[in-house]
């Protein structure tokens, strides 16, 4: 088994002085993840690169102080590594399954990690009412891009972002789902690579900007700066 207490090269660059917190999260996943149905048995030796660092490097996309909702957080990806790497972010972990919510609560308590945990689905009216106006929504391995846009973009303020962690199919999904993404409120999108300096296989991200809402429905706090 990988020595989870000794992170791979590059992890310190991502987590800085909060690296011990990230290492403890990796240990918790190794100790409890398989039993609690959060990761597969073959994933234990790949926790750092496939899960923890793969998620944390997405921090490159977010400006300082943004409120980010992790849609379908599951085992905590990408939300928990993101919150560890970027304590300036206001991270919300949104998850519908009770047993996974319990896991997220256990982790937050164990790590003394400042996150908000919400049980529910992004498409539920009560959830939308509570989380509307976030600066960004992010997700990993939750749904195809079209459906993810339908769920996530209503949570995001005009000018905010949907940040979807994708694999090799990312470009194909952008082409296939462009009409649906536009219908859901997306006005611009791009393919971004994160973590090239610390991962052998960098994280591929689809970044979608939400367009302006009708007059009187702008729940946002500030516009995204030009990149």
CATH class membership:
Alpha Beta
Radius of gyration: 17 Å
CATH homologous superfamily caption = Vaccinia Virus protein VP39
For the termini, the CA-CA separation is 41 Å
Task: Explain what you see.
There is one protein chain. This protein has a seven-stranded mixed beta sheet with strand order 3-2-1-4-5-7-6, with helices on both faces. The C terminus is likely disordered. It is built from eight helices and seven strands, in the order αααβαβαβαβαβαββ. With 227 residues, it is α/β, with parallel strands linked by helices. Helices cover 35% and strands 22% of the residues. It has one domain: Rossmann fold (3-Layer(aba) Sandwich).
Which key phrases capture this entry?
7 strands, 227 residues, 22% strand, 8 helices
Give a nutshell description of this structure.
Keywords: Cytoplasm, Methyltransferase, rRNA processing, S-adenosyl-L-methionine, Transferase. This protein is about 35% helix and about 20% strand. The chain has about 230 residues and is an alpha/beta fold.
Layout of helices and strands:
Blueprint (H helix, E strand, L loop, with lengths): L10 H5 L3 H14 L14 H10 L10 E5 L7 H7 L4 E6 L2 H14 L4 E4 L5 H7 L2 E7 L4 H8 L3 E11 L3 H14 L2 E9 L8 E8 L17
Parallel strand pairs: 1-2, 1-4, 2-3, 4-5
Antiparallel strand pairs: 5-7, 6-7
Helix pairs in contact: 3-4, 7-8
EC number: 2.1.1.-
GO cellular component, one term: cytosol
Subcellular location: Cytoplasm
């Amino acid at each position: 088994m990988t020595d989870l207490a000794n992170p791979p090269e590059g992890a310190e660059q991502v987590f800085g002085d909060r690296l011990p917190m990230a290492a403890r999260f990796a240990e918790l996943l190794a100790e409890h993840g398989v039993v609690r149905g959060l990761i597969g048995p073959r994933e234990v030796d790949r926790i750092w690169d496939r899960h923890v660092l793969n998620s944390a490097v997405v921090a490159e996309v977010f400006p300082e102080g943004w409120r980010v909702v992790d849609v379908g957080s599951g085992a905590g990806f990408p939300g928990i590594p993101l919150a560890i790497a970027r304590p300036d972010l206001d991270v919300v972990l949104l998850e519908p399954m009770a047993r996974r919510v319990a896991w997220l609560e256990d982790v937050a308590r164990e790590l003394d990690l400042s996150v908000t945990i919400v049980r529910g689905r992004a498409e539920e009216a009560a959830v939308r009412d509570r989380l509307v106006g976030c600066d960004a929504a992010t997700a990993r391995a939750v749904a195809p891009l079209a459906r993810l846009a339908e769920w996530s973009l209503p949570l995001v303020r005009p000018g905010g972002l949907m940040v979807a962690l994708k694999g090799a199919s990312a470009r194909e999904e952008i082409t296939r789902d462009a009409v649906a993404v536009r219908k859901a409120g997306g006005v611009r999108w791009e393919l971004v690579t994160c973590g090239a300096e610390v991962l052998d296989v960098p994280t591929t991200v689809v970044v979608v900007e939400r367009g302006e809402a009708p007059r009187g429905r702008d729940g946002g706090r500030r516009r995204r700066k030009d990149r």
